[in-house]
Amino acid sequence: MEKMGEMESPKAKVRPLVRIGIFLISHRIVFSFICCIAGAVALLLLPVLAKKTYISENALMPGSANSMLSSQDVSDARKLVADIMGLNVETRNSGIEIPRILAQHIAKLGAEVSHHRFHPQPNKFHPLHFFSSPGLEIMQENTSCFLPGVSTTGIIRAPRGDGKEAIVLVTPYNAAGMDIGEALSLGMAYSVFSLLTRVTWLAKDIIWLAADSHYGEHDSVATWLREYFSPSFASLEEANGKVCPANGDLYETKDKLVFGKDAFKRAGTMAAALVIKVADGNKESEDALTIYAEASNGQMPNLDLINVVNYLAVHREGLQVKVEKMFSLIDSKFLKIVGEIIELLGKLARWLNPQWRFGIPVAEYVEGTATLASSLYSQALGIPTGSHGAFRDYQIDAVTLVISPKVSLSNNAKQSEFLLRSGRLVEGVIRSVNNLLEKFHQSFFLYFLTGPSKFVSVGVYMIAFALLIAPLPIVAASLYSEASKCDSTVKGEKPSSSPDSNMDPSMLLRPWKWLHAAKTVFIIHIWSAAVSLFPYFISQIPNITPTSSSLSWVLLSVFSLHLLYSVLGSPFSYSSSLEPHRQEWATLKSMMISAAFIGLCLMSVVNFATAEIGALLVVPLCLIAQPLKLDVRARSSKAIGRMACNLALGVVGFPPAAFFLLKGTSEGFNGLNMGEFWKWVECLWVWNSATYFYIFLVHVPCWVLFLHILLHPL
Amino acid sequence: MEDDDRKSSTKNKPQKFWEWAIASMILRLILIYFSKNLNFSSRPEVSTPLTSLRRLAEGYWLKQSSLSPYAGSMYHGSPLLLAVIGPLTAIRISGQPSHLLCSFLFVIADFITAMLIRAMGQKLQSAYSQHLKSLGLDKVLKAPEMLSSGDVAALVYLWNPLTIVTCMGSSTSPIENFFVTLSLYGACARLVPLASFGLVMATHLSLYPAILFIPVILLLGYGIDTPPRKLFLQKDSGNEMKLSSDISSQHIGMTNHLALPSFSWRLPMYFLLWASIWSCYILALCAVSVYKNGGLKEMFKRTYGFILTVEDLSPNIGVLWYFFAEVFDFFRDFFLIVFHMNILFMILPLAIRLKHRPCFLAFVYTAISSLLKSYPSVADSALYLGLLGLFANELSDMHLSFFLFCGYVGVNLLSPIMHNLWIWRGTGNANFYYATAMAYACFQIILVVESVSAMLKNDRMLRRLSTIKDSCIEKTTKIS
Fold first, then answer.
1. Does A511 contact B399 at a Cβ distance shorter than 8 Å?
2. Mean pLDDT calculated for residue range A9-33
3. Keywords in UniProt for this one (chain A) (predicted)?
4. Which residue did the predictor score with more confidence, B188 or B473?
5. Are residues A266 and A367 in the same domain?
6. Has residue B4 got a pLDDT over 50?
7. A51 - beta bridge partners?
């Protein structure tokens, strides 16, 4: 091997960068171990690293003006509430009376009224809709004989504005099951709305949408927004006339209300939207405000909006502000221990140097972690936590405010006080947003909340993720280089003294050997993409129970994989037919790791939370994979440990298994069945969650390849 | 590159070429029906201001209403395309996706391009093996894994996701790629009129193929790619030395003399003549078609001027738009010159170093121009990746192939996501998207550098092999 000899000599002075690379590759086990541990630790440290929120946009100036909401507005609002609650159940259920009352009240205030009639959008899984742009969707779907929902909108034209911007107030209500909370939320919005018709400082139009949430809160807001931004020109009336002649009389009665294309009123682009709900039954000692902010695919509204709400609620109205927590974690022993360690470390740091502010009390840590976990989970799920999610699809910042008073709402005397207090909060937020010159852009869009006034920004939480996935490219590179090196040494060992050995033809294509592994990985990915489309066909079968559909899904997947192998040839056949290629599994593993790495990186851009949670499972899966035969042969304790890890990961990596494990640990194992997994997945695709795609384009292929490597015949 | 897995499948069963080719056609035809859902035509990666079919339809509409097709800065392509494809955009078949006929046209263009690449590959390979034989290096050829590079390249072109996306994306790039390949094929087959027609048309459509002038001239002058010239000279002298002792080797010496590449001026001269004829002809056609709307001057300003001055700064996968959006206006001209000179600077050194491999030189030029183009799209990458397949045997020792493959896959998936984050979700900004454009450019540079160095290494290996062989022969002759 003269050639190799020649190559050897300049190797003495390799460039520093290359040397670092070689160093990392040679210490890959230590390196990946350290990185993974560091990634997990960094994730646990996030609540400690959280910063206090601050208002970044100066123009907002929350709380700089006195509240103008008077008891007159509140008593008007109470009249509305009384009107609504006074309706007898039957007229209320018809769904027309409340819009009529609202329209009367709004018109009395001198604002513009319009109604928006809509039909529920059947939530169907359609594989190709993921690719189409928003607005192009579903409009052509046949609306069937459902009773249409009727939402009412009132618009105040700003005396100081040019009509190009607007702030939206949404109060969802369900006419059929109207309770006092919903009526109060309508009343509160009305009180603020009536105040805003009189004020002189308004620079943005105000839209009040009383959304009929008969078919779900999100749907009503989403259809209204779709009509607002991309109106459909197929006449709704016509469609109704065609499909449901029997219901004709129902629509006759509605002629009192104004419908039709011209009646749909618009204001300018929306700067922000507030969804207001009133919840009854608060067990806390104070009036509480819960903020929901997660929109589809883990998108969050600008942090400034949450800050404004939080600032006003805490400092002006004295409400107790909460964000969602994962309650099962609050009692977690593990978190308490970690919290204690961190507290101890913090004390130690302060003892060493009083300047070092590190560490937080245990209770705060546990609370922060529970909040963070809930924030991570709801972002990862990709399902909006309320109707504010519909706004985010149009780049509008929106939050849902759920206000729950400490006393029962049926108490009339307390109602006024409550309405005044929460009305002032809403007024303050609107006044603050009204000051905004541009759209929200100053503060963060990418963050996690660890408390109502604490957040972890993208720059911090990325570290945990980066540490976690850093070993992947290193291990892939080292496996690849080892495999190719091994290859050449195998060739070099051949006893051949003739110079012809240089021309060994099989040497020629050595660097392209990975193509076979690439093909395997590609095929698995294609299969997995096909598996992600199966639910579409399975859901077409009438009267199928969730359990049987999930079982048929699994069976269909296995069958299709088998079919694919018989058509395209099993990935193992290659190694057996040609000369035994010992390092084939290493190449396959390196290819699988690269695919997982690319997938995780992409997912971290689409939905960071999914990528983070997914990485916790996929990274160990990628790093530890090794053929079982090798471990069986080795018979050392290390090999047996690795084998056990591999088997455990192989079980946990199966998505339903992981789902049941998570669900079981959080809610207890009794009453779990296969159907629940189907329901969960159905939920994901109905909401077009990117997590669904993550599972089927990154996780499942990775898991199947992992099994391939485990069962590799060598 | 993108679809190298196909390559491996052909490696095992080369006879399946036609099945795979037809399958790729069927896939395209199926995808045409989903073109509305896939919505590739609005992707900035696929359709540029120059190649967008939507703009072409607009230009055609303007022309039909007897306005200048270039009015309103919508259309910037050739008036000839307007005349050929324009009527097709106007035909709508009810119930079918719009631009159906155009899509069919692009599918056909893709297929012919692939066939031309295949023919080119076969010519390259036969020439290559002839040269190797004449050098006495037949052993390299006997390798069982020696691929038929034409098949590989054609399949890489046909199955490359980038090509498929371009074909679905209603952009005129398949036509441009077709003309570029046509000219290269013409030069390989020594059909001077064809080569000149292809080159003139390609230049007319997108200007940048003008730099392929040099490889085409070299192809016509020297003939198809050969191992370096030095090798033959060396070989010759070696042969002459032993000519006296060994009569049987005389035959080899004779073939060497035949294969020795030397530049002949006859075909290049023909080529120049034909190229001028074709360009006059095309300009005359253009002049006729834009006669009423400002004439040729307007056309030049709106097409080549538009390309050279980078007027449209809407985001694309290139690196120029961001730069020219940021640059101060008074430096604009300076930087325009700098950026365009970048391409020209590389032409000469590469031509000198790679003059014995004009086809490979053409690949390198295409890659470089797609890197520094003012409005690049993935179609350019599709073309040079297809051409790269032609050298599958020579480049078998290429470094970083795995890394490049992963990089191309990653960046091509990341770019639409970043675009979405910036434009639709509003949580990202232009820097996010531009970062992927820069990463893409880096990968292209690495690809060019690695492929050129692998090619040079291959040449060096051949030289070493031939010297070893020579010394062996000498030894054996001495012993005998």
1. yes
2. 78
3. Membrane, Transmembrane, Transmembrane helix
4. B188
5. no
6. no
7. A455
In terms of domains, do A341 and A277 share one? no
Of A383, A409, A425, the residue that ends a domain is A383
Dump pLDDT digits (tens) for A510-568. 556 778 888 888 889 989 988 888 888 888 788 788 888 888 888 999 999 888 888 77
- Bridge partners of A697, per DSSP, are none
Chain B environment of A499 (Cβ under 8 Å): 468, 472
Q: Is A702 a member of any domain?
A: yes
Q: Answer yes or no: do A483 and A616 share one domain.
A: yes
Q: Which residue of A has its CA nearest to B144?
A: A505
Q: Any idea what DSSP says for residue A255?
A: G
Q: Is the ipTM of this complex over 0.90?
A: no
Contact of A676 with A668, CB cutoff 8 Å: no
Residue A216 burial (C-beta neighbours within 10 Å; 0-12, 13-18, 19+): middle
Domain count, chain A: 3
**Residues contacting B461, CB < 8 A, separation 6+:** B397
Helix (H, G, I), strand (E, B) or coil at A684: helix
Q: Would residue A592 count as lying in a domain?
A: yes
A445 and A344 share one domain = no
Residue A500 falls inside a structural domain: no
DSSP A513: T
* A371 and A473 together in one domain: no
Is-contact A164 A228, C-beta < 8 A?
no
- Domain extent, residue A107, equals 58-117+149-225+258-324+385-452
| pLDDT tens per residue, range A253-271 | 444 555 555 578 888 889 9
Contacts of A184 (CB under 8 A, 6+ apart): A81, A278, A409, A415, A418, A419
pLDDT, one tens digit per residue, over A39-72 is: 999 999 999 889 888 888 888 888 888 888 888 8
Q: Are residues A371 and A389 in the same domain?
A: no
Residue A88 placed within a domain = yes
A607 vs B contacts (CB less than 8 Å): none
Its pTM stands at: 0.87
Cα distances from A154 to residues A104, A107, A211, A404, B230, in angstroms, run 11, 8, 11, 25, 86
Ranges assigned E (strand) in A202-279: 205-212, 269-278
Interface of A to B at Cβ within 8 Å reads 3, 128-129, 131-134, 299, 395, 445-446, 477, 480, 499-500, 502-503, 505-506, 508-512, 514-516, 518-519, 522, 590, 594, 597-598, 601-602, 605-606
- Nearest in space to A273 (alpha carbons), one of A401, A117, A112: A401
- Encoded tokens for B39: 């919505």
Contact: A508, B145; criterion CB under 8 Å: yes
A41 lies in the same domain as A176 = no
Q: What is the DSSP-derived secondary structure letter of residue A210?
A: E
Same domain, A590 and A528: yes
Cβ–Cβ < 8 Å for A270, A168: yes
The 3-state DSSP composition of chain B as helix, strand, coil percent (nearest 5) reads: 75, 0, 20
